[in-house]
Every structure is written in structure tokens, then in C-alpha cells.
Amino acid sequence: MHSLTIDQITKRYRTGTEALSGVSFAVEPGTLLAVVGHNGAGKSTLLNIVSGLIRPTSGTVTTDTGRGRLMWAPQRTMVDWSLTVSQNIELIARLTGAPASAVDRVLELLDLDKVRTQQAEYISGGQLQRVQIARALVADAAIYVLDEPTAGLDPAAGELVMEHLRERAASGATVLVSSHDLDAIERTASGLVLLDEGRLRAHLPIQEFVRRAGATMKVRVVFAEPMPEACPDRLAAALPPEWTLETDADRAGLSVQVPLATGLRPVLAWLPADLRVRDLSAEKQSLRDVYLARHAERSPAPESVMVQQ
Ligand SMILES: Nc1ncnc2c1ncn2[C@@H]1O[C@H](COP(=O)(O)OP(=O)(O)OP(=O)(O)O)[C@@H](O)[C@H]1O
Ligand SMILES: [Mg+2]
Q: Residue 224: pLDDT above 80?
């Protein structure tokens, strides 16, 4: 059962811009799905359609929230400027039937206690963003839709919000969140949807996306004694085709780059058994690394679109 199904959504604004073209994917309960893509890719358009703010030109969104509700935080600030911080949150709590204790909980979670009596107009941009997130999180929901919740937050607050969203997903909610913070996404999201000029380019679990995008791992090996003179040539001769090798000029160590999917074991097996290793470290490419590399090459994202199981 999916809690959210997006089927062949197309959105053409009155200006003629086609912001989304035939986008389809489904989200399962208990997952945090990140929507990524360049500025203008169509993320907000998609999230605004899912949350019911705007209608698609064609296609359907089916939300199965059971008895739960859908809570939404748009990218543009939507607060009541004349109310205080806590009144802004209380208003949503009343509308959704959330208890007063939930207001205190989100005020504390988002570190808004010290400005709770301030009018929304007179707080900082990051604090305002926290109020907006607090308004979405104050009620228990089956589906949370948050459009760039970490934009404008300091790094610690951004991390806290993403981690909290991960926990809500882990306890059964469906969380759809757009973000440019690829490191936070890699740490917290179950999967990602990549939009490119309004088209769905990938829908994959994060690690699968990273692997398919051609991520590599660089393994650095330092030997206890320099390698014998003939060793670098022997290693190069036995190098699998997709690997690249750099040997230190003084033969004290080497670096080998392998596809991420290869893993460490074949590298260890390839090293000569008679050489003692003093130090070994591996550096994996991150989601951010592969995303930026693909963007620079303007190469397509992983071709096949796989619906998460
Ligand atoms: N109300 C609107 N009327 C006309 N065109 C719009 C409207 N809103 C967005 N667009 C256009 O639709 C496209 C997608 O915009 P959207 O806001 O969905 O992008 P986004 O992926 O959220 O970008 P960002 O990362 O900057 O938030 C863009 O070309 C944008 O200019
Ligand atoms: Mg947007």
C-alpha cells in the first residue's frame, strides 16, 4: 500500500511554462523521500500540487492518509505576521486538534522558547523558518510535505530538523521533503526523486542512486616497507579494467580508485600477500560528489527509473 501516489502529473502555468511533465512515482508509509533538482526544476510545483495548493494541468495525486492528516510547510513564508511565535503555532494546533503540550514540544524542539512571545514580524529569518516548520510539525500527521525546510537554518538546526523528520518517518509517517542539502539528505532520507526541467530523472534509494551515478571509492595504502622494484608493474598488470592506480614514486604506498560497488574485499585480494600494510584508508564519494560531477558533465542521471520497493 502506498500513502502517496503521483500519477502522470503535468503542470503548465498560465505563462506557458511547463513546470512538470508526466511525473509519476509512489511513496510508501514510513519513508523519508527527498525531492532534489536544480532551481526551477519543478520541486515546489510538485509539492504544492501534492499538498493541494495548486491543481495539476493533468494527472492525479492520490493520498491515502487513513485517519491521519497531511501537514505542509511551503517554501514561501506563510505565517501570521501580527501574531506571536507561540500564537502562530497554537493557531495550527487548535485547527488540527493538537494538544497544548504539542505546542510546547515543537517550541522546544526548534529552540523557539526564547522568542515565543515575540511578534512574528520582529524575529530573524531563520527563526521565522523555524516557526513555519513548527506549524507543520505541531500536529501528528500521516504525511508531511516540507519544501526546503532547512533553507536559511544554521547547520545545527538544519541537521536537527532533518533528523527529526527521519524519526517521524521511522515511526510510520510519510515525509516528502525538497532540499538542496545533499549531505543531510544522504544521512537521513530513504530515497530520492530527481527532477530535471520538470521531468522525473530518477526515483531510487539513496545508496542505489550513488552507485548507479558511477560513484567511486579511493583506497590509500601505505606499506610497512617500500614495495620491491618490480611490484608496481606487477600490480598494474593485474589491475581490473575499471580501476585506476597511482603508485608513490618512492614505492612507500599506492592509491587505487575503484567503483563504489566493488567494495574493499577485491582491493585487499589484489594487494600482494607478502607486503605488510601499515595503513589503509578508504574515501567514498558522497551523494553531493556524484550530483555535482553529473551536473558538471551535464550527463543524464541514472537512466532507469526504479520504484522503491
Ligand atoms: N506561479 C507561477 N507561474 C508561472 N511560472 C511559475 C510559477 N511558479 C513557478 N514557475 C516556474 O515553473 C518552473 C518550476 O518552478 P518551481 O518553483 O517548481 O522550481 P523549484 O524546483 O522549486 O526551484 P527552487 O529550487 O528555486 O525552489 C520554473 O521555471 C518557474 O519559473
Ligand atoms: Mg522551490
A: yes
The per-residue pLDDT of the chain, averaged, comes to: 92
pLDDT at 303 over 60: no
C-alpha distances out from residue 203 to 79, 179, 226, Å: 32, 15, 47
Whether residues 170 and 200 fall in one domain: yes
Q: What is the CATH number of the domain that holds 264?
A: 3.30.70
CA of 48, nearest ligand number: 1
Cβ–ligand 1 contact at 44 (below 6 Å): yes
Mean pLDDT (whole number) for 170-175: 95
Q: What is the Å distance from ligand 2's center to 11 Cα?
A: 14
Query: Which domain does 271 fall in, by range?
Result: 216-284
Q: Return the higher-pLDDT residue of 293 and 265.
A: 265
Quote the CA–CA distance of 90 and 100 in Å, as a whole number: 7
Q: Whose CA is nearest to atom 19 of ligand 1?
A: 40
173: left (phi over 0), alpha (psi -120 to 50) or beta: beta
Return left, alpha or beta for 201; rule: phi > 0 is left, psi -120 to 50 is alpha, else beta: alpha
By the 8 A CB rule, do 131 and 87 touch? no
Q: Do 253 and 238 reside in the same domain of the chain?
A: yes
- Give how many domains the chain has, as a whole number: 2
Ligand closest in space to the Cα of 45: 1
Separation of 44 CA from ligand 2 center, angstroms?
A: 4
Distance 239 CA to ligand 2 centre (A): 45
